[in-house]
């Protein structure tokens, strides 16, 4: 007999992928990093220009390594010794990349992507520019609806990110968001991607793991 937990998870993933499809976003489910990397290779053409948004998940799953070692024109904003100016240029060049990869802060069972961003360099190319956007996310990012997504990101993901970035913000002291006006505030844009004009421009690969936050 399938365990109730497994049954619930499968139903949740199935519902999310079906809802994404209704919004012209293609969803895929993979069991592990190996299957994920095979999917990514399948979607990205050799020699194409690839950019990424800030994401722990892309490092955890080996996607960044794949992009560095593969036959891609990878706009590597993490490369050692990169200057602020070069990084800013990569942010701008990301709009004309063939593929943009990122994770997301939350995916709703209604088929939406929800993100909070600081300078917008992660969410802006998700919305406009690259002809293909690949979102990689652990199933821990699935939530019921936008209300739950907002709560998750605001009181969980954003404080953890502020902590990771060593920011001097109230959430780092308290462990939750107080909608601060701090100089170090990282939450500037609250973005819901609800639908796409072009079917399949955004692809979401759900990995059967807890990844990122
Ligand atoms: S708004 Fe301020 S307190 Fe809230 S999560 Fe963002 S940085 Fe932290």
Topology (elements, then pairings):
Layout: H1 4-22, E1 26-30, H2 33-43, E2 49-52, H3 56-60, H4 63-69, E3 73-74, H5 84-93, E4 99-102, E5 106-108, E6 113-117, H6 123-127, E7 132-138, E8 142-143, H7 146-164, H8 170-174, E9 189-193, E10 202-207
Parallel strand pairs: 1-10, 2-3, 2-4, 4-7, 5-8, 7-10
Antiparallel strand pairs: 5-6, 6-9
The protein binds iron/sulfur cluster (SF4).
**In the CATH hierarchy, what is the architecture at level 2?**
3-Layer(aba) Sandwich
Tell me about the largest β-sheet. 6 strands, parallel
Strand order in space, largest sheet? 1-10-7-4-2-3
Beta percentage is 15-25%
Bound molecules: iron/sulfur cluster
CATH superfamily: NagB/RpiA/CoA transferase-like
Mind telling me the C-alpha Rg? Answer: 17 Å
| Distance between the ends | 31 Å
Number of domains: 1
Task: State the share of residues found in helices, binned by percent.
Answer: 25-40%
Reported by name, the CATH topology is Rossmann fold
Number of helices: 8
Structural class: alpha/beta
Secondary structure tally: strands: 10
Which of globular, elongated, flat, extended, rod-shaped describes the shape? globular
Mean pLDDT: 96
Which regions are unreliable across 5 or more consecutive residues at pLDDT < 50? none
| Assembly state (oligomeric) | single chain
Order of helices and strands: HEHEHHEHEEEHEEHHEE
């Amino acid at each position: 007999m399938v365990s109730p937990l497994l049954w619930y998870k499968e139903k949740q993933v199935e519902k999310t992928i079906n809802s994404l499809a209704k919004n012209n976003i293609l969803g895929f489910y993979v069991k592990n990093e190996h299957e994920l990397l095979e999917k990514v290779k399948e979607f990205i053409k050799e020699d194409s220009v690839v950019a990424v948004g800030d994401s722990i998940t892309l490092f955890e799953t080996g996607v960044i390594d794949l992009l560095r070692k593969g036959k891609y024109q990878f706009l590597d904003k993490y490369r050692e010794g990169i200057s602020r100016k070069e990084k800013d240029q990569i942010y701008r060049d990301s709009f004309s990349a063939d593929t943009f990869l990122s994770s997301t802060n939350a995916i709703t069972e209604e088929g939406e992507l929800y993100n909070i961003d600081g300078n917008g360099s992660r969410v802006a190319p998700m919305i406009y520019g690259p002809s293909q956007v690949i979102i990689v996310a652990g199933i821990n990012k699935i939530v019921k609806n936008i209300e739950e997504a907002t709560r998750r990101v605001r009181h969980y993901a954003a404080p953890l990110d502020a902590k990771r970035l060593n920011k001097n913000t109230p959430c780092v002291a308290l462990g939750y968001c107080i909608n601060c006006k701090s100089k170090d505030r990282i939450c500037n844009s609250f973005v819901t991607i609800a639908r796409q004009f072009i079917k399949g421009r955004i692809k979401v690969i759900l990995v059967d793991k807890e990844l990122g936050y």
